């Protein structure tokens, strides 16, 4: 059984603004953010039963859809690293952004989601694990591998 019209309306009213804000933040493009949000709710409407954790589902679905949009785009919007996460040194923040951009295209879908959730959203490993439905240790191992590759690229230099 799919969601009823009333159930979908309630989910959209309650979580639509959150989903749109997430897409807008990741994409930096208002029109594309609306399209992505619409597509995610259309997919949600086709689900056999209401999801028990709609925020978790929407967070994952919006992130995944945005990553797919970046892959399809000819000019990709770089993943932005919050300056606070890189520390007070502006050079370190710039270097971190450049290294993440270089590593981004080597990452699989799960690693890209982890990078977005950690370095864009600033979430701790435990929350990332909960959103992705994996163990916290798995997130930690993947982050360690990603950071190791990023360090290797930084040491290679331009």
Detailed description of the structure:
The protein has eight helices and no strands. The radius of gyration is 17 Å and the shape is elongated. It folds into two domains: 5-72, Rna Polymerase Sigma Factor, Chain: A (Orthogonal Bundle), CATH 1.10.1740; 83-156, Orthogonal Bundle (Arc Repressor Mutant, subunit A). The protein has 158 residues and is mostly helical. Residues 81-86 have low confidence and may be disordered. Helix content is 75%, strand content 0%. The longest helix is centred in the N-terminal third of the chain and has 23 residues, at 5-27.
Q: Quick recap of the structure?
A:
With 158 residues, the protein is mainly α.
What structural keywords apply?
single chain; 158 residues; mainly alpha; Rna Polymerase Sigma Factor, Chain: A; Arc Repressor Mutant, subunit A; elongated
Secondary structure topology:
Blueprint: H1 5-27, H2 30-45, H3 54-72, H4 83-86, H5 90-104, H6 109-120, H7 125-132, H8 136-156
Helix pairs in contact: 1-2, 1-3, 2-3, 3-6, 5-8, 7-8
């Amino acid at each position: 059984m799919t969601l009823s019209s009333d159930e979908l309306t309630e989910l959209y009213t309650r979580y639509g603004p959150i989903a749109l804000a997430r897409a807008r933040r990741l994409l930096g493009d208002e029109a594309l953010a609306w399209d992505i949000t619409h597509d995610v709710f259309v997919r949600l409407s086709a689900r056999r039963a209401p999801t028990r954790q709609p925020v978790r589902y929407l967070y994952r679905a919006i992130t995944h859809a945005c990553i797919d949009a970046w892959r399809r785009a000819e000019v990709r919007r770089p993943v932005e690293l919050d300056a606070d996460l890189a520390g007070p040194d502006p050079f370190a923040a710039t270097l971190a952004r450049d290294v993440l951009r270089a590593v981004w295209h080597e990452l699989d879908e799960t690693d890209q989601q982890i990078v977005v959730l950690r370095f864009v959203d600033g979430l701790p490993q435990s929350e990332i694990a909960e959103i992705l439905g994996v163990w916290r240790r798995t997130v930690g191992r993947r982050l360690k591998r990603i950071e190791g590759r990023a360090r290797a690229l930084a040491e290679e230099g331009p």
